[in-house]
Specification:
Chain lengths: 115, 113
Amino acid sequence: GAVVSQHPSWVICKSGTSVKIECRSLDFQATTMFWYRQFPKQSLMLMATSNEGSKATYEQGVEKDKFLINHASLTLSTLTVTSAHPEDSSFYICSARDRVGQPQHFGDGTRLSIL
Amino acid sequence: QQQVKQSPQSLIVQKGGISIINCAYENTAFDYFPWYQQFPGKGPALLIAIRPDVSEKKEGRFTISFNKSAKQFSLHIMDSQPGDSATYFCAASKTTGFQKLVFGTGTRLLVSP
């Protein structure tokens, strides 16, 4: 149980384009979803937290207009990287939790490469 | 206040040996301490977690030791196997509010055959 699916697993696109990453909870309802960014050989850095039906809460230093997060249903959250540039290349990972006090379950990440 | 310090950065252990990874936290409001295992190109997977009301928790070959007064906790992997070779992250959070996880810097474990 507690499976989180992320799509796509890998995307390459040209600088200036926008990229959407989906995060789905397959066998539970995710009231809260989290988006992380991970650079090679580094730890996970939280970008934002979203509750279903509410606006996302962004961490300090994360541009909300650059990284658009939508959590429209209890099983789906999306992260859109707008006007992506090479410095946005990274490994993006989502996690989901069904209710307060329960652990976060992580997806397998999306490797984003901007040329 | 929000940092979780993790050591060592990397670790090489022989097959059958004990792997030990240590973490220290500063925020006394943290009351949930999970360990995650991450393989290359994959997301982290929850390995084991502990709350501060116990000093030790064991699940199979994995044990968490927790020292509340020292604000430290550690992961012990007994009878380490080559398949355990991965990056391990400790983390800490509160169990109220958003329960945001603060991750340690990670330990790359290599278990030699």
